[in-house]
Amino acid sequence: xxxxxxxxxxxxxxxxxxxxxxxxxxxxxxxxxxxxxxxxxxxxxxxxxxxxxxxxxxxxxxxxxxxxxxxxxxxxxxxxxxxxxxxxxxxxxxxxxxxxxxxxxxxxxxxxxxxxxxxxxxxxxxxxxxxxxxxxxxxxxxxxxxxxxxxxxxxxxxxxxxxxxxxxxxxxxxxxxxxxxxxxxxxxxxxxxxxxxxxxxxxxxxxxxxxxxxxxxxxxxxxxxxxxxxxxxxxxxxxxxxxxxxxxxxxxxxxxxxxxxxxxxxxxxxxxxxxxxxxxxxxxxxxxxxxxxxxxxxxxxxxxxxxxxxxxxxxxxxxxxxxxxxxxxxxxxxxxxxxxxxxxxxxxxxxxxxxxxxxxxxxxxxxxxxxxxxxxxxxxxxxxxxxxxxxxxxxxxxxxxxxxxxxxxxxxxxxxxxxxxxxxxxxxxxxxxxxxxxxxxxxxxxxxxxxxxxxxxxxxxxxxxxxxxxxxxxxxxxxxxxxxxxxxxxxxxxxxxxxxxxxxxxxxxxxxxxxxxxxxxxxxxxxxxxxxxxxxxxx
Length: 539
Description:
Blueprint: H1 3-18, H2 24-34, H3 47-63, E1 66-67, E2 75-85, E3 91-96, E4 99-102, E5 109-112, E6 119-128, E7 134-135, E8 140-141, E9 152-156, H4 179-188, E10 193-197, H5 200-203, H6 207-214, E11 218-221, E12 232-236, H7 238-247, H8 252-259, E13 267-293, E14 304-310, E15 316-320, E16 323-325, H9 329-348, E17 356-362, H10 370-377, E18 386-391, E19 403-405, H11 415-424, E20 428-429, H12 445-450, E21 455-457, E22 459-460, H13 471-482, H14 498-516, H15 530-535
Parallel strand pairs: 6-9, 9-10, 10-12, 14-17, 14-18, 18-21, 19-20
Antiparallel strand pairs: 1-13, 2-11, 2-13, 3-4, 3-13, 5-12, 6-13, 7-8, 13-17, 15-16, 19-22
């Protein structure tokens, strides 16, 4: 028998014999505590956030995982800057064509100063730039060489309509459609700021999600010298956007249609955006929690499989129905509990896998994947020696499913193992049920993917055992409409954790298999992340 085959069979047999005990009740205890009001919504640089990270470090220690953070601790400090717009001192006025419109904070606009300054005065020409995308590989350029330095760019999130997988991913949203990309591209073009015109179809969520997410302190990486940044990164509601465009003689539908054309050229709106922007700026004290179960192979223990989940949520914010604590039970106390129990499972194995297993509970996911981006840039084991990142984010408490969703796994050379393991667990691999929402670019595995590491999120599918057809879609829509990024994302005693346990078992086996491979996985030929993988030294 080949050496590789021997190792895989041997470790599979050991894992089967050990049969790690994934307890629904232990997972329930983690989720219930992390989502309790005592954690105050686990905000960045808050008492609740510090308590949550202390809890996770202690839980990893009890599980048997060793510290892998700074200076022999479980903590990796992540230096961030908090910028909180002061609405009582801030003004946002649109003027032109004999009219003016002053917008109201929270109900009509939200945003902040990405230059991280206490005050800004902005008086800038407004220019509509479609989707604000420059994508040479698709022969797409919304700027067409127009100089937008010092201008206020007005645009839609999302990207051009497509049913062709080779053109902006077809129905699947690519990174070009994400709001983070819009701000980055505008800064590269020297714009003064960006106003995103919100619509629920283009964003994938309602205005209440935008306002609750952006109507509070925002977190940023500290700016490097001469790093381009926007004086204003913000959104306006669809109603306010319609008023703004009406002043320029345009409509939302008209400009959205224009934006979907390859021939689109920037449209000066004949308006000026005048802002007095006052902000509270402070350094933020926050951290990732990092633990490791060392590998057993003298050489391969210096390589790793990584499990990630974000611990942060939105802390204490604007009350909704009298509740101001954004508990983040599904999003993402569930994922944190999962990786703690995965650490317990790996630590309990009598024969550890060949590679080390690293567990990272990251901060500032809700602020734009900042904690995972920091870890990817400062990893415990180099990205070029990391086999895989398996991410857990927002596991749903509705029971077991017949299928699993692992979007992005098919882009990696680890895909055959994923298929085999899914078959072993009698799971059908389902495609992303909502590709238009761009979920691949919205969670922490994306930070690792950008660093070249084959990465994807492990999530249950939509075909729930014992539930009627359409149940999964119904529950997803209900959560997205009523509870996503809202105080009502709370723990309930009647939750069914069996589906989460199912995903932990599946994710454990994926990680075990990757940890015992002879050769590190990589991205398939032509993938957008392959160059980063090759740059890190993996061929």
